[in-house]
Amino acid sequence: MTDTKLVVLAVDDTPSNLDLLHGALNEDYKVKVATNGEKALELAVKEPRPDIILLDVMMPGMSGHDVCRVLKQNPETTPIPVVFVTAMSDTKDEMLGLALGAVDYITKPFNLDIVKARVKTHLAQFEKTRDLIRENRELRDTKGRTFTDFDETDLFSLISAGEGHSVEFKSTLRWNLHADRSDKGIENACLKTVAGYLNTDGGTLLVGVDDDGEVVGLGKDHFPNEDKFLLHWVNLVKSYIGAEFMPYMRSIIEDVGNKRVLVVECLPSTKPAFVTRDNEESFFVRMTNTTQALKASESVAYIGEHFSERREPQAREPLQPARHGAEDGTLAGWMGELMKRHVIRTAAIYFSIAWALTASGIMIARTMRAPEWVGQALVIAFVAGFPAIVLMSWVYDIRATDKKRPASSLNRKRTYWLVAALVLLSAVIITLYSLYG
Q1: CA triplet 67, 69, 71: central angle to 5 degrees?
Q2: Which fold is adopted by the domain 7-143?
Q3: Which of 229, 75, 74, 254 is nearest to 154 (CA)?
Q4: pTM
Q5: What are the two backbone dihedrals, phi and then psi, of residue 59, each rounded to the nearest 5 degrees?
Q6: 26-59: per-residue pLDDT in tens?
Q7: Is the peptide bond before 313 cis (omega within 30 degrees of 0)?
Q8: Which distant-in-sequence residues (6+ apart) come within 8 Å of 204 by Cβ?
Q9: Which CATH architecture has domain 152-306?
Q10: Which helix (H) or strand (E) holds 204?
């Protein structure tokens, strides 16, 4: 085994099953084993963390379903794919496992070749989203954002404060209370709210609370149980927004008084989220207290500006012309780079005005018979100020361009530096004239 191997956590209360799994997977992966749910949760957060978990359902103490619930409520273990390995083959059991966040279901007695194939497939899929998950964690660290551990008091406070930019209420997930039937328009309203949160600054959707802040619970959606409710919601998100956005969301059912509500908390995504249904793709953002759909042109502009700020900047090498356009390192390359960034224009303007002011200052100093060091000081100020202002202009231009600031911003900043330098030089000349005039 090497440290570069991916880690598989196998959880089963039967040692012989663990021996089989360990023997089948040990050659390609680092295999950890646990014989109960408590030990599984301990290993799930211990480095090196598992890249996939093979989880038995029927275990003494904590069942596999209980373990999966805890894993999916912890932001650090939510992304880890869970595959249930169990003798339970009922469709209802499989639906419950998928509703809790599992990615697959393998029945016993298992075929080891099938187990290895499933593990390989799900690890490959996990690798595709690993960078996205890492971006999400870095984003949360940067913004100080993470999922909130809501208790009943927190939820009461959230509801009593009313709807706002980052909080929205929905009475039901799928049921049209006026028509008394299932309505995909109600589902779409929940999906667009979540997409709007992902595309802006995050937020919380509460399902089971009406517009007036009255807690009505989940019963009006007519699901047989909460697991079916959660399964329906998870499938909606995966089908119409995308499974890759699941790490940015946490969906849990909590008590509020004597009612139960669905709490969907969203973190801001590092990539745009679209709602795609019935061959239509829509892009939503939160504006004040509502979710708005943007037109195609508006979406392009918003995505270009909003999501570029969320990506981690690439590490920059030391400033050098080859990094920013003068790729051949020749004099022509340098001149082309300077022309592209308007540095030569800045230099020419500075040189012309500063030279005229310096020459005037020296002439006045000689006329007033000022000490010789006064003229020398003016010359030094000009000679030192000229390359300094040009260098600062160029460095700022490079840094601002990397941050995708508009050209008008660059020109304004460059002008500020130029004006500041000329004002300083003028102040020196006026001071000298006042002293010796």
Answers
A1: 70
A2: Rossmann fold (3.40.50)
A3: 254
A4: 0.46
A5: -135, 150
A6: 999 999 999 999 999 999 999 889 999 999 988 8
A7: no
A8: 148, 158, 166, 167, 168, 197, 263, 264, 265, 266
A9: 2-Layer Sandwich (3.30)
A10: strand 203-207
